[in-house]
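$ ./design --mode recover --in tokens.txt
reading tokens...
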């Protein structure tokens, strides 16, 4: 498991409640991973300028052909504005048919309820069955996964 350092956004000091969003993209082919990872890193360079962005991690599970992000937002509208960004839409369209994208959002009371992706944290892995297990990459500080406000899967 690889992950970036925490990348703070302009709303880093916002106390909460906050919206957390997890994306998990599993590429059909290992050859597509470098491109999607490169695009993800380029989007992260925009992070300090995105209204409502609290912070984020990017992560990669190379043997599993998976990459994704765990981002925290001031509110749902801020997350949706990011999703509609021209750069983001272009990347999603380019890789839409090259794998499966799964995303979840949920509300947290504060940043202390979000932990970096890594071993021993809770993650609902769409590729290993079940909706709640101890695995990588993590997203919740508690042993039980939070109930998602919304879950999407695209093939």
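writing sequence...
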């Amino acid at each position: 498991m690889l992950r970036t350092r925490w990348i703070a956004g302009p709303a880093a000091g916002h106390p909460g409640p906050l919206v957390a969003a997890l994306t998990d993209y599993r590429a059909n082919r290992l050859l597509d991973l470098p491109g999607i990872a490169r695009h993800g890193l380029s989007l992260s360079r925009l992070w300090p300028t995105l209204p409502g962005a609290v912070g984020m991690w990017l992560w990669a599970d190379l043997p599993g052909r998976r990459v994704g992000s765990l981002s925290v937002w001031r509110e749902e509208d801020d997350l949706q504005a990011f999703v509609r960004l021209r750069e983001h839409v272009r990347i999603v369209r380019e890789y839409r048919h090259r794998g499966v994208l799964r995303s979840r959002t949920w509300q947290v009371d504060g940043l202390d309820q979000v932990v970096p992706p890594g071993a021993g944290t809770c993650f609902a892995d769409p590729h290993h069955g079940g909706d709640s297990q101890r695995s990588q990459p993590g997203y919740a500080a508690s042993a039980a996964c939070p109930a998602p406000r919304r879950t999407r899967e695209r093939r």
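exit 0
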